[in-house]
């Protein structure tokens, strides 16, 4: 196995050394439902649990890029946060200055905003924030398909053009 040569504080270095040591030599494997067990010739077995299938429901997301309506995916303006939380048929979050809410439906990987997006009406004076909000909310109303891969939420329109990308929000 290859790895970086970065030094970490203890006990992380001891854990890494033990883990890499367990992966040397011949390993026997067993798969049972959503578990993989690797058993070395000597030492304790390593047991890995599969992650549950990705879901929109109950997860808060931080938008890293959104479609500005001019065929470009752009990052949120510095100092603003665009967020999404899908919960019990409602999507809500921050559009940079204001908060918003809308009903949504999801079946499999299909997603639709099923009501107009409602937003608070604060006026924000920072340059570009109000335009960003309009563009972000317009993009949100165009969603049709979602997927999650490697912790990244990827949402597209019906024509395949990207609507937004997001990562799980820090708690």
Report on this model:
The chain has 2 helices and 13 strands, in the order αββββββββββαβββ. The chain is mostly beta strands and 171 residues long. The strands form 2 sheets. Strands 4, 5, 6, 7, 8, 9, 10, 11, 12 and 13 form a 10-stranded antiparallel β-sheet that branches. A 3-stranded antiparallel β-sheet has the order 1-2-3, with no helix packed on it. Strand 11 and strand 12 form a beta hairpin. The chain is elongated, with a radius of gyration of 22 Å.
Topology:
Elements: H1 12-22, E1 27-32, E2 35-40, E3 46-49, E4 59-67, E5 73-74, E6 83-87, E7 90-94, E8 99-107, E9 110-113, E10 118-119, H2 129-140, E11 145-149, E12 152-156, E13 162-168
Antiparallel strand pairs: 1-2, 2-3, 4-5, 4-6, 4-13, 6-7, 7-8, 8-9, 8-10, 11-12, 12-13
In short:
With 171 residues, the chain is mainly beta.
Helix count, DSSP H or I runs of 4 or more residues = 2
The helix fraction, in percent, is: 10-25%
Q: What is the gyration radius calculated from CA atoms?
A: 22 Å
How many strand segments?
13
Mind summarizing the main beta sheet? 10 strands, antiparallel
- SSE succession: HEEEEEEEEEEHEEE
The structure class reads: mainly beta
Mean pLDDT equals 92
Distance between the termini: 33 Å
**Low-confidence parts, pLDDT < 50 over ≥5 residues?**
none
Strand content is: 35-45%
Shape type: elongated
């Amino acid at each position: 196995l290859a790895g970086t040569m970065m030094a970490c504080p203890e006990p992380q270095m001891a854990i890494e050394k033990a883990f890499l040591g367990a992966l040397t030599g011949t390993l026997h494997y067993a798969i049972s439902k959503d578990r993989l067990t690797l058993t070395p010739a000597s030492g304790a077995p390593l047991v890995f649990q599969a992650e549950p299938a990705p879901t929109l429901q109950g997860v808060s997301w931080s938008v890293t890029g959104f479609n500005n309506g001019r065929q470009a995916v752009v990052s949120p303006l510095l100092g603003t946060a665009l967020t999404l939380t899908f919960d019990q048929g409602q999507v809500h979050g921050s559009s940079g200055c204001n908060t918003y809410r809308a009903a949504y439906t999801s079946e499999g990987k299909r997603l639709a905003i099923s009501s107009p997006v409602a937003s608070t009406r604060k006026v924000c004076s920072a340059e570009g924030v109000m335009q960003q909000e309009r563009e972000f909310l317009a993009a949100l109303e165009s969603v049709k398909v979602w997927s999650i891969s490697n912790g990244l939420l990827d949402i597209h329109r019906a024509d395949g053009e990207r609507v937004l990308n997001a990562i799980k929000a820090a708690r």
